[in-house]
Structure formats: C-alpha cells, structure tokens
Amino acid sequence: MRSPNKTGCIVKLKGNRRRPYVLYSPYFYDSVSQKYKRSALGYYSTLEEAKMYKIAYFSSNIDLLKNSNNTTSLIFEEVYKLWLKNKDVRKSTMKNYITNFNRSSILHKMPIDTINGLFLQNIINKANLTKGSLRNLKSFWANIWDFALLNDLCNKKNYPKLLKLPSIERGNKTSIRERIFTDEELEILWNNLYKDKRKIVDIVLILCYTGLRIGELLNIKIKDIDLKEKTIKITNSKTVNGIRTIPIHDKLLSLISNRMYKGNEYLFTTLDNKHYKYDSFDNHFRILCKNLKLKYHTLHDTRHTFATLLVNAEVNKEIIIKMIGHKRYKTTLDIYVHKNYDDMKRAINQI
C-alpha cells in the first residue's frame, strides 16, 4: 500500500554495508541551487527498522520508538499511540477510543505483526459484550490495522474487517431494564429537593422535565434563560436538531431561578461555584440514586422519562420531536418511549 504524501521514502543502498537502508525526507526546493532535493534522515540495518523509524519520525514520536523493547515490530499499544497522536476528535469519541483500547488489553504488548484473525475472532467469541459494543470494538481494531498497513507497520491483512459477530446477543443490554423514572421515583426526588448534600436533585428533576441531554444542560448559560417567556435556548448540542428553544415547566421555574447566581456564566455549578463537568456530575448522580434507593438509572434515562411523559399526556408528535431535538418521531417512539403493564391495561379498557 502506498505511503501518504510528504512522508519520505526508504531506499536500499548498493554494496556491502552495515546499515544499507536510508530514510530520505520528502523532496524540498533548494533556493540556492534552484533544484529539488531530499536529505537523509537516518541509516538502518534492516528494512523493518527503517519502516518503524519512518512512521515514528513523521508522526513526531521518535522517542516512542527509541524506548521500544521490540526491534522488529511495534506492539499494538505503540501503534495505537501513533494512530491516536494526530487525532482531533470530540471528547465523547476519545472516550470511546479509550474504552475500546482498555477492552483490548490482551493485545497491548503483542507485536501487531504477530496478531492473526483467529486470535481476534476468539476474543470476539468470548467477550461478554452486546453486539453493538462488539461492532464498535471491531471498527476500532479495523482503524488501527488500516493505519498499520498504510504505514508498513504490518504486512498482513486487515483481519478485523473479516471478523464475524456472534448471532446470539450477550452482555447487559440497557433496553431490557426499565429505563424511565416511575411516578413513585419522581415523587421521591421532589420530596428530597435540596436535602441531598451535593444539592443535585433539582438538576435531575430539570432533566426529567425538559428532556435535555446532559451535555446540553451543563452547557446552559444564564443568558440563555428567559424567565419572562419561560424558555431555555439550547445553543450547544450534538445534532443540528438539538439547537432549539424549549419551554420551562411551571414546576421548574423556581428551581431554575434559584440557580441564576449573580456573576456566574453557567447556570449549573458545583458547591465551590465551578462549572459542572459531566464526569463529576455523573458520579454524583449515581451516588444520589443509591442513597435514595432508586433503581439503577443512567443520566440518559431522564430523557427517556421526558419522552414517555409527553406521549402519555398525548402531546402532538411534532411538538414532541421539537422539544426532544429529534429529526423523526419514529426515533422518539421506538427508542425513547416506554409503556409498562399498567399503561397497557388502561389502553385496553378504552376500547
């Protein structure tokens, strides 16, 4: 496979030499001689060594290679670091990379050129993950192998692309548990408003009655709140449809106005008046659910709760998708709306 442009080339010199392989820089224009030239960056004993230094040099990570104990092939962990070095991605995407790297711990110290398809397939077959998580892991591996093949770090196939996912679903699927906060759980939250030591019950209730993504909520600025019109303007969202203006439930007005501290930029802050970050709030949320003896919930369950409350109230579907920030009602209905046995009993009696 052809190497990327502007990453030089490797040439084997003639004659009996101790280091016959030379790594040349890309061509550059010499204003003195008015000719295009290239300079030698290093001389190496083997082609494999030259290839490794080539990718390390042009990714500005030569120290990684110098500290490597393996002289013939980079290990999976080193290839991952080289691949990741020039990645400019969202925080959520980076967390996804780290998660899949951690799930690949058995590969970390293995030379990538020694990992074959049978070994990878065996990991897939034994992993206690859902099919979605395995698909994500497989895609992550495929990106690593694409990078390795493109830069001559391995000379085998892209095995991850050939892997088969198991037909039987495994792992803990979130869809099989009850995701919404029940009426009883919402009542527990209202009854404990401002009673928890971290004072986040009001934020959880605002999530349940606005349907905001946690990232959208934590990035709300005080200037985005209009108490007179009872609206919140969402200016930071993961989707185009997420940029929207939503109404404030009457029950939330005092909760929000109590958070509008003078001099603050963001609406939601920690006890020491700092902007709340996702990881910190997620940890506090889990502790809160445990302390109040609520069922296991994730922060995204508040969004499912809001969608279900709207559908139960027979709100017009066009209004629902605008408040949720979806493009299609089918997405809301298929994924976010949950009906329990009591709902079905009430429905059958309406016939």
Describe this structure in words.
This protein is mainly α. The chain has helices at residues 47-58, 62-66, 76-85, 91-103, 117-126, 131-150, 183-191, 201-210, 214-218, 253-257, 278-291, 301-312, 317-324, 329-336, 341-348; strands at 9-12, 21-24, 28-30, 35-37, 40-44, 225-226, 231-234, 244-247. Strands 1-2-5 form a three-stranded antiparallel sheet, covered by helices on one side. A hairpin with a 4-residue loop joins β6 (225-226) and β7 (231-234). α8 (201-210) packs across α12 (301-312) and α12 (301-312) crosses α14. The chain is elongated. Residues 347-351 have low confidence and may be disordered.
Q: Widest sheet: strand order? A: 1-2-5
Counting H and I runs of at least 4 residues, what is the number of helices?
Answer: 15
Q: Which radius of gyration do the C-alpha atoms yield?
A: 28 Å
Q: Assign the structural class, choosing from mainly alpha, mainly beta, alpha/beta, alpha+beta, or little secondary structure.
A: mainly alpha
End-to-end separation? 66 Å
One letter per element, helices H and strands E, the order comes to EEEEEHHHHHHHHHEEEHHHHHH
Low-confidence stretches: 347-351
Residue share in helix: 40-55%
Q: What profile does the largest beta sheet have? A: 3 strands, antiparallel
Mean pLDDT: 80
How large a portion of the residues is in β-strands, by DSSP E?
5-15%
Morphology call: elongated
Beta-strand segment tally = 8
